[in-house]
Specification:
Layout lengths: L15 H26 L7 H12 L4 E3 H8 L3 H13 L3 E6 L2 E9 L1 H21 L6 H18 L1
Antiparallel strand pairs: 1-3, 2-3
Helix pairs in contact: 1-5, 2-5, 3-4
Length: about 160
Amino acid sequence: MPAAEPAPPATRWLDADEQRVWRLYLEATQLLVRRLGSELDESEHDLSMAEYELLVRLSEAPDWSLRMSDLADDLVHSRSRLTHAISRLEQRALVQRRSCPEDRRGVLAVMTRAGFDALAAAAPLHVTGVREHLFDQLSAEDVAALGRICGHLAEHLR
C-alpha cells in the first residue's frame, strides 16, 4: 500500500497590518513606475521606461555592449520581451545586435552613439522625476531603510 502524501503546509494568511502594507507597497510602486513612465512618454524623448532602463544598462557596460541573455537577467525581463525592446530600439538606430566574438551562439546588444545621445537627453528628466517622486518624499533614514529592504528582497528573489 503506498504511503499517504504529506498534507500541504497550512497557509499563513496575512494579518490586517500585513495586508495594508502589501497593498500600499503595490500601489506606491505601480504609481511611481506609471508616473516616471508617463513623464518619459509625454516628453520629446520618445523612450519608454523599459527602453530608458535598457539604454542605462548598456551605457554602464564596457564598450556599451552586453550579451542579450545577461541584459535580460539584469533587467529581469524575459528573453522575448527583451528581443522586442531591442528590435524597437534597433529600428531607431539606438542599438545594434552583433555576434558575440567569444561565443558564436551569443548575441550582443550594443548601444550606438545615437542611443547614448538619446539617453543623455532623457536622463535629466528621468532623474528629476526619481528625485521628486521618490527621494524627496523620504527622510535619510527612510532611504537607508528602503535600500536595505529592497536589497534583502532582491537577494531573496534572485
